[in-house]
Amino acid sequence: MSQRAFAAHGRDRTSLNVGWRFLRTEENIDHVVYDNILNDTNNEVLKPWILPSANNFINDADKHYQRPSGNPSTVLPQAQKDFDDSSWQSLDLPHDWAIQGPFYEGYGVPIGGGMGRLPVQGVGWYRRQLELQAEDKGKSIYLEVDGAMSYAMVWLNNKLVGGWPYGYNSFQLDLTPYFDPGKDNYLAIRLDNPTNSSRWYPGGGIYRNVWLTKVDPVHVSQWGTSITSREVSAVSAVVDAVVQIENKGNSSLRIEIATDIHVGEASGKKVGEFDRAAINLGAGERKSVNGSLKLDKPRLWNPVPNQQPNLYMAVTRLYSNNKLIDTFETSFGIRSLAYDANKGLLVNGEHVRIQGVNQHHDLGALGAAFNVRAAQRQLEVLREAGCNAIRMSHNPPAPELLDLTDRMGFLVMDEVFDMWELQKTPYDMHLTFAQWHEPILRAFLRRDRNHPSIIAWSIGNEVGEQTTGETGAAIARTLHDIVREEDVTRLVTASMNAAEPTMPFPAALDIISLNYQGEGIRDTPAYSHLNNGRRTPPQYPAFHAAFPDKMMLSTETAAALSTRGTYLFPVTDVISAPVNDTSGGNSTSMHVSSYELYSADFGSSVDKVFTSLDKNPYVAGEFVWSGWDYLGEPTPYYSARSSYFGLIDLAGFKKDRFFLYQSRWRPDLRMAHVLPHWTWPDRVGEVTPVHVFTAADEGELFLNGKSQGVVKKGEFEYRLRWDDVVYEPGELHLVTYKDGEEWANATVVTAGEAAQLQLQPDRSVISADGLDLSFVAVRVTDGQGNTVPEAANAITFSVSGPGELVATDNGDPTDLASFPSAERKAFSGFALAIVRGKRGSSGRVTVTAEGTGLQSAKTIITTR
Ligand code: GAL
Q1: pLDDT above 70 for 470
Q2: Candidates 3.30.470.20, 3.40.50.970, 1.10.3860.10, 2.60.40.10; CATH matching 756-863
């Protein structure tokens, strides 16, 4: 932004994503650490310089940390201005240093299946020159990092500025005392990722956006606005605004504060104006001003599909002596929430059943490096299933993901911790909990509180403290009360897989959130041989009786397992069974059957979950574990790289389970999904059950024209199943009925030999901004265009023109070919190429897929 634009606006926030140098070492050779947990005296502990970065988020000023005088004694060459980094890798952010692999294979490796077999561990240094003009002298200069994994420490011009250990928070550091006006400023960021520090793939690096903000020393504080609404109706709503202002200058000033409300964006129609306020602000002081106004006929924020997710923008301006010194924009929505113990969630008075999923932060083959289009695509595929809610398991998401959920009208449960004081893995964030829980929590809340999509705050997932009696409940109350200090409009919860209704823990929460217990754990005969772990009947009734005034939901249901396109025989005749080699699993191929009847030992099939939800209609809904497959946690086969829990695989291809959810979540959709595929040369004459996912209540199945009988759904049945079909090649045809009327038909045919490839980009026009992506699916077909269901042909992708191949995948959790590879085997007939347009050069990008003995395919993507 030019100085003139700055003068017109009073604030300049620019991306710092471009132009970094990077080096990673697997070991820590720097002789510094954040904290010494190994009693290893070789390393200088830098924690005293980092802790003061938390001060703005610690409410008791007596507990603020003082920066030690001077600098640490260890001289880090990488942090010096004149360090020669020309041999380091050049790159742009967001960046995940581990995603390119290679994968670690087998046992005894530094990073095993749980953390995704990718080289996340080690120390990463990032360096970049900062251009700060002479005119910048006198301004406040802030570095803003939206996520760095992990233990970030930041130097500017040889001086240690501060840092932030928790990899999932956004954080801001004040660079003002350290910069030299002029070109010669060097920023150095050091990250340190431990092994054994996560239950899933954390990624490594500065994996979210980085910004530089220049502003007058008197300005709106970081995340300094809170905009809420009350008395909301179609007729009117009261909007309350709190704006916190700080004076980092040396003199006391009188400041005027004006906030306007616009429809949608700052450029949208102005619909309201708060009374102007004026305050005196002494040097070093922070003060908040409050305002309220009534808006007539507000356009409410509502989850889709029933209504629109309307947004407003509050524009706050600060004036000193009538001169504009800061402009700060806050996007928000007007809506009411009610949490009813018997009816569930009410948004603007309307009951909305929570049809949600859990999502980890990775973007499959793109890793943890945030990309808006990749995240939007995840939401789009989920929306197609009828999903209306996302639980951010188990950590703060990228801020842009919440912008997407606001705009797309998803409900969100925003979650901050997977553990408190009690560890889940030896080097996870329990190590920093004592000093950082308050700043982590307040930073999370202040950043996210204006997003209308967020309906509840989760302070923890399955923390060990659930079952430690009063000790654990006391921590829950502390965290709960911090939340209520920052936001009075939403309720607080934590997920419980082991707490019981009589324990103190659930009593400390506003909403009862159960993981798996709601539908019961190891409670049916198919699970009775499992002796490790909890066994409980469905817990909804007991919690409802113990907390008759608290809304209840399941923050995790199912933990059902499957591999797309894999069908194993025989098929269980019960509705839910754990996976093992005689039941839905194959530990040699490491694949799980997609009849969608199998679960983790502690889980339940979808059918069993639906039954328990329907038997307990006061439950507000569910978040399925999980929406998409994710990197790491490959239960039940830890030699694999990625999970089996999703209704969508890691590459974005729909599993059969997707359609089971769709049949319930979109009951008006005329859809009937048949499984398995019908190409079984080795099964002629063998029983090959056929199951159908549909909102219809009745169906008739024909094999080569012969009826296999009419099947009707009984009470608490969610699929149509013909378990005695004897395989013969040819055609399966299905006719379904709902309430006696014909509903949807489907046909599945036996495919011939693999003959050709077909390409299908999800978008064939993308932006040439170096960020936008096209996800190009390739399908292996026979000569007639039928998918060859078990095709595993090796495919080579190539890209020409102003674009590049970023990564490939096929959704197979066992595929350890590294993601950037242009060669990828098809898996169950499909593979994926992710293509990006080069920044600034628009044109036609040709994507080609070739495979030996197959007719190749080309598609054009236009970038502009
Ligand atoms: C839950 C846990 C999730 C995930 C899931 C499936 O217990 O909260 O993070 O691990 O099980 O294994």
Answers
A1: yes
A2: 2.60.40.10
